[in-house]
Amino acid sequence: MEGDASDSLVSIKNIERELICPACKELFTHPLILPCQHSICHKCVKELLLTLDDSFNEVGSDNSNQSSPRLRLSSPSMDKIDRISRPGWKRNSLTPKTTIFPCPGCEHNVDLGERGINGLFRNFTLETIVERYRQAARAATAIMCDLCKPPPQESTKSCMDCSASYCNECFKIYHPWGTVKAQHEYVGPTTNFRPKILMCPEHETERINMYCELCRRPVCHLCKLGGNHSNHRVTTMSTAYKTLKEKLSKDIDYLIGKEGQVKSQISELNLLMKETECNGERAKEEAITHFEKLFEILEERKSSVLRAIDASKKLRLDKFQTQVEEYQGLLENNGLVGYAQEVLKETDQSCFVQTAKQLHLRIHKATESLKSFRPAAQTSFEDYVVNTSKQTELLGELSFFSSGIDVPEINEDQSKVYNNALINWHHPEKDKADSYVLEYRKINKDEEMMPWNEIEVCGTSKVVSDLEENCHYAFRVRAYKGSICSPCSRELILHTPPAPVFSFLFDEKCGYNNEHLLLNLKRDRVESRAGFNILLAAERIQVGYYTSLDYIIGDIGITKGKHFWAFRVEPYSYLVKVGVASSDKLQEWLHSPRDAVSPRYEQDSGHDSGSEDACFDSSQPFTLVTVGMKKFFIPKSPTSNEPENRVLPMPTSIGIFLDYDKGRVSFYDMDHMKCLYERQVDCSHTMYPAFALMGSGGIQLEEPITAKYLDYHEDM
């Protein structure tokens, strides 16, 4: 028997962490269950509500300065307590009749409803366990008789109906045989008196007999019939008691069965903590050794590095300590498990159900964490090695040695510049880097180096805006892990367009031939369909009729300034003509008979018809160059008679630069921002981006580079 009593004493003492109020950090006193299922002392609820009330009703600076808020709470006035406890308490007449209470357990605001504190259940099960803990803690401290004349005798019984403790003589006097009091329920000496039947706080004359599964709280039949729980799913108290007790018992049995595993993992955590301590001290000593070799310039950096090491060590040790405490609570007779075992001793169904639900969720969470054990931190400090090999001028940027972080590599194929610059890079150890720093700077024509601009990036791509036109920019990137920095990547040089990007879409109305051309819904891509209609038109060649081009233009015209746009011609395209044309010339093309606008009569059509040998006007209201069969055909001019010089490989992306004011158009290879061909053009009318297709072909307009563009392509 003595052994059992000793075990009970140890068991009840080991669960002290579960019996501490989150507000006052002391043992619970008359705990109440909040709607969030956390418990808090009755007096703590009142004090917190008083604090809120005082914060909204500061009278004057004199009253505010005479005492601290805590002193005001130590002696609350009775009128305030009555006002807070009264149903429907509110701060003022303008606020709704509800009380918002900040739960100190979960740090969320919970609504106490119109009844305020009166609408909360007392946690009698927790109160009983706290009382058993107090008795185990004070051991020999006796509970004295409440009815004895001084000096009182030690009590031997406590009456649950009278809420008083009695010695043998007083019990006989106040509970005589043959009276109603003789039938009272009595227990061993205790100071924890609770009602035999749990009553509904909403309907004070009704006993609790059901459990609301939605609100997770006991209710009475009136709550279900016409109260706040009328539309909620409820179950009988006996069913809820049986279900929760079975689940809780099963989870506790599982944890008890894994006690050996828990002890092993705690031992492993203790070893990891020792190893972390040793490695941290070793790293600290090595850092001190290196810093002692340096002079006054290193003093500031030394303290910075030591703080980083100590902070990392403390953070890891704190994580390990927290993990150890969590697992300590999973041992039998300790913490959470011990508390759960005490809850299982509760025989009153209503009291058990109101406590067991939240406890079961915590037990289930602990069970899940046990199945996938992983140390909370790393023990190695290999990344905290100080590098002293740098030159003296770099000491101001001294950081931890870059151990194991590879140099990022900029992906030239996926990096480009248009209206903005899009820089993509690849890092072999992407998961090890916390962040990246993208650096860029302008390169002047005389190769004068400008200072680097820095952008911190979390991912492996970035859109850089506000770049100057027709300039070279250098880009490089480096990786960071904590304070550790990798070397910079190889620089990428990009050339910005010679003018602002001109945004437009294909015009689906003006001259658009939907029999031959297929335009997508976004109107940024057009394809030529070599179908049956073209075959029929080709038959007319025998009688002198030529198959015509199908034109499509941009939906926005240009009347002044410099503009640049780019597009891609699909490699399978047979014949595509690209350039600019004036509004009056387009009217002629789109409304004249087809035989008058056949390729043979069009200058710069790209056909080997001989028309290009003619000396065309140096300034005409349109300029079109021919692209097709993976070639870029430069129109013939008097200065170049070599055919091979006029045929170039087709660029991946083609850019067009129109200077309206100077009447000049240029064609660019976008990959290298190199001008392939330029000439004068008559800009006396509105100019439009113009395209023409014959046979199979496709044109895709370049999409402006924005943050949305980046997100879309990352998803792809």
Automatic annotation (TrEMBL):
Cleaved signal peptide residues: none
Domain RING-type: 21-72
Principal location: cytoplasm
Molecular-function GO term, any one: zinc ion binding
Domain annotation COS: ranges: 344-401
Segments forming domain B box-type: 195-237
Cross-referenced InterPro entries: B30.2/SPRY, B30.2/SPRY_sf, Butyrophylin_SPRY, ConA-like_dom_sf, COS_domain, E3_ligase_FN3/SPRY, FN3_dom, FN3_sf
Keyword Cytoplasm: yes
UniProt cross-references to Pfam families, sorted A to Z: COS, fn3, SPRY, zf-B_box, zf-RING_UBOX
Protein's cellular compartments: Cytoplasm, Cytoskeleton
B30.2/SPRY domain segment(s): 484-708
Domain named Fibronectin type-III: residues: 407-499
One Gene Ontology biological process: spindle organization
GO cellular component: acrosomal vesicle; cytoskeleton
Keywords in alphabetical order: Coiled coil, Cytoplasm, Cytoskeleton, Metal-binding, Repeat, Ubl conjugation pathway, Zinc, Zinc-finger
Domain of life: Eukaryota
Gene3D superfamilies: 1.20.5.170, 2.60.120.920, 4.10.830.40, Classic Zinc Finger, Immunoglobulins, Zinc/RING finger domain, C3HC4 (zinc finger)
Protein family membership: Belongs to the TRIM/RBCC family.
Name this protein carries in UniProt: Tripartite motif containing 36
